[in-house]
Design brief:
By secondary structure, this protein is of the alpha/beta class. It has two domains: 117 residues, NAD(P)-binding Rossmann-like Domain (Rossmann fold, 3-Layer(aba) Sandwich); 190 residues, Dihydrodipicolinate Reductase, domain 2 (2-Layer Sandwich), CATH 3.30.360. It has a nine-stranded mixed beta sheet with strand order 14-13-12-11-7-10-9-8-15. A six-stranded parallel beta sheet has the order 3-2-1-4-5-6, with helices on both faces. The protein is globular and about 65 Å long.
């Protein structure tokens, strides 16, 4: 049996507490061995036996830690990941990968130089709705896809004093949620021919974008990616239309809410989505609809694949090169928004 892979996490904020610590601790063969934090009491309240290092540098210096996870504010991703790679650690960075494509490229080169795994936590690839959507598209019943929409809408009318909603590079909804939707679009359809983006600050007191609407062009097919913080009555999460019919899915994946509620990952019913999708197929003048039960979501699969990539040499579940593509589209989208025009994407 392969030796247990010991992981350390930098910081103990929302992402560590809600996602990374419980997911890592639930994967066999992977051990949450330490956290770095300036608030040991906060960590101890949730993980009383977990060692706490006073600084990231102390965590990187630990010989037993092989994998370092970095779910810290966006502007710290690059310097912390660079330090961890230089210390000989495998590294997982939360999305978005970095602030710029230049930083992302530097980290990729550094990981290659040190022969270390570098991955980005694009966990929404393992959402129930997205896994179900992929299964529907593989089935082929919709025919040639002509139009796809993906909405990540929430109702959070009050602006909070946190880095995700701060002004400056790396803040705002396009970086936060747009990275998820872009990654999913790339997985489904590959690199678009062109992108157009519009953003806005719609909430009272907002200093960063809290609304975005992106159009990705693939020949005659159109992909719409949309996110908002002011949607109290959400429409479809996914809607895809093709020459043979349509698929519509309401509701976001349940795993985040379960993690927030303290449900242990992998518990009975984990990832099961009560909101079935619906396929409508057209045959002549007649349309026939049927419910599609969702594939259970499985965020644990990401860290199980990280374990196997390091121990067994299997593929990295989210190679940094794929996350670099997301960053390229984030930057190009921002340029499009500034200039108010459609911009071509390089293949």
């Amino acid at each position: 049996m392969a030796k247990t892979l010991k992981a350390g996490i930098v910081g103990y904020g929302f992402a560590t507490k809600t996602f990374h610590a419980p997911l890592i601790s639930a994967v066999p063969g992977l051990e949450l061995a330490a956290v770095s934090s300036g608030d040991a009491a906060k960590v101890g309240a949730d993980w009383p036996e977990l060692p706490v290092f006073a600084s990231p540098e102390a965590l990187f210096a630990s010989e037993e830690i092989e994998l370092v996870v970095i779910p810290t504010p966006n502007e710290t991703h690059f310097p912390l990941a660079a330090q961890a790679l230089a210390a000989g650690k495998h590294v997982v960075v939360d999305k978005p990968f970095t602030l710029t494509t230049g930083e992302a490229s530097e980290l990729i080169a550094l990981a290659r130089r040190h022969d270390r795994l570098l991955s980005v936590f694009h966990n929404r690839r393992w959402d129930s709705g997205f896994l179900t959507l992929q299964a529907v598209l593989r089935e082929g019943s919709l025919g040639r896809v002509t139009h796809f929409e993906s909405h990540f809408d929430r109702y959070r009318p009050t602006v909070q004093q946190r880095w995700r909603e701060s002004a400056g590079l790396g803040g705002g909804l396009w970086y936060d949620l747009g990275s998820h939707l872009l990654d999913q679009a790339l997985q489904l359809f590959g690199t678009p021919e062109a992108i157009w983006l519009d953003t806005a600050r719609q909430r009272d007191g907002a200093v960063a974008d809290d609304w975005f609407h992106a159009l990705l062009r693939y020949g005659e097919m159109r992909v719409i990616l949309h996110g908002s913080a002011l949607v109290a009555a959400a429409g479809p999460h996914f809607a895809v239309h093709g020459t043979g019919g349509s698929f519509v899915k309401f509701g976001l994946d349940p795993q985040e809410d379960a993690l927030k509620a303290g449900v242990r990952p992998g518990a009975d019913g984990w990832g099961e989505d009560p909101n079935a999708g619906r396929i409508t197929l057209q045959s002549g003048e007649a349309a026939a609809g049927r419910a599609v039960q969702c594939v259970p979501g499985n965020y644990l699969a990401y860290y199980a694949a990280i374990r196997d990539a390091i121990r067994l040499g299997t593929p990295n579940p989210v190679p940094a090169e794929q996350a670099l593509q997301v960053m390229q589209l984030i930057e190009l989208g921002m340029e499009s928004a500034r200039e108010g025009r459609l911009l071509p994407c390089s293949k």
